Amino acid sequence: MPMTDATSTKPPLTGLVLTGGGARAAYQVGAIRALSEIFPQKQPPFRVLCGTSAGAINIAYLASHSEDWIAAATGLYGLWEKLGLNHVYRTDSASLSKIALAWLSRSILGGRAGTRKSANFLLSTEPLRELISREVRFEAIRENVSRGHLHGVSFSSVQYFAGTTVSFFEAAKSVEPWIRSNRVGLRASLDVSHVMASAAIPIFFPPVEINEEYYGDGCLRQTTPLSPAIHLGAERLISIGIRHERRKSDIRSAMLLPQRHAPSLAEITGELMNSLFLDSLETDVERLQSVNDSLELMTPEMRERQPYKFRKLPILQLRPSRNLGELVPDLLARFPLILRYLLKGIGASKLEGRELISYLAFMDDCIQPLLELGYKDTLARRHEIIAFLDSGESG
């Protein structure tokens, strides 16, 4: 939690936090477009931008175009509208066959064939690297920070072997690197590798080498996704999640449903993906709100005597009104033949494995409904969002 800062007459620094979700991150983009219509201004309403996994891709684009907030939001929306599988990972038979053979060789021969590098992922993400390199101007991120358009930007990933979440950041000179339990913040000249590392979904996407260390998807070990924004100086936060708000009655009803069959590997993998991308943000938001509620009960004198000098940090969470997985139609037949064969092999079908497929389905039939729902949900909370950002409260 943040430490008390010196009193300032400047408007509070607002942070935007985006976490992962594969193709489901399209929901964030719809929400961002709605935010640009709610606040139709050139200067960005968010000066602290923090992203993890697919959220890092969205943050990278916004940060590199933050000199014009409306153009950035519009451009990001247009980019996702045109996104296809071939823009994210290789879909040609030669590439998929080469990877499949490497896995098969190592499996049959007990790991004694093939190289370690060629058999630790299922999909080559070179197209995504090319897309990010083309659409994100990383030198512009540095310029926007130095000019004061932005106060700080971070991309988080997990360092394999060490098991540490690393938030690489560029920020104002006043921001210091941090070290906490299993998470650190390192100042760096951000580039495409930091984004690719943050978005490297384990098993599906390849680990990324940075400074002779290997990194993977930041959601893997990130238990406190709000932390980087707080360390970068944010005084209030807006987070955009991809888990819909479930009522207690819905949870109880789901638990009472009869189990039709033992879960397939595709369904188990889908639940693992849900755990990876959905749980940590909700838990961290609840934790921060609990701290805020506790501070509300304290007198100013009691706040001053607290050992950790916590301060109230307002947060507004934007989240889907529906389960995003339910919006995804049957798309299995549209995957490349070899990838479709693999997905079917682990139990994916028209009825099963939809949760898993929704994370990998970078195609218009999946993306468009998510863009539209994010846009619609956020506009529906227009008055609440305006009240939050116009309050001037900094905790």
Description:
The structure is a single chain. The chain has 395 residues and is an alpha/beta fold. It is 45% helix and 13% strand. It has 16 helices and 10 strands. The protein has helices at residues 26-38, 54-64, 69-81, 93-108, 126-135, 138-146, 192-198, 227-231, 248-256, 265-296, 300-305, 324-327, 337-345, 354-360, 364-379, 382-390; strands spanning 14-18, 48-52, 152-159, 164-171, 178-180, 183-187, 208-210, 213-217, 236-240, 315-318. Strands 1, 2, 3, 4, 5, 6, 7, 8, 9 and 10 form a 10-stranded mixed sheet that branches. A hairpin with a 4-residue loop joins strand 3 and strand 4 (164-171). The protein is globular.
Spell the H/E element sequence: EHEHHHHHEEEEHEEHEHHHEHHHHH
Percent range of helical residues: 40-55%
- How big a fraction of the residues is strand? 5-15%
E-strand count? 10
Q: Supply the helix-strand structural class.
A: alpha/beta
Q: What is the averaged pLDDT score?
A: 87
Number of helices: 16
- Largest sheet data: 10 strands, mixed
Parts with pLDDT < 50 across at least 5 consecutive residues? 1-8
User: What gyration radius follows from the Cα positions, in whole Å?
Assistant: 21 Å
Distance between the termini: 12 Å
Q: What is the molecular shape?
A: globular
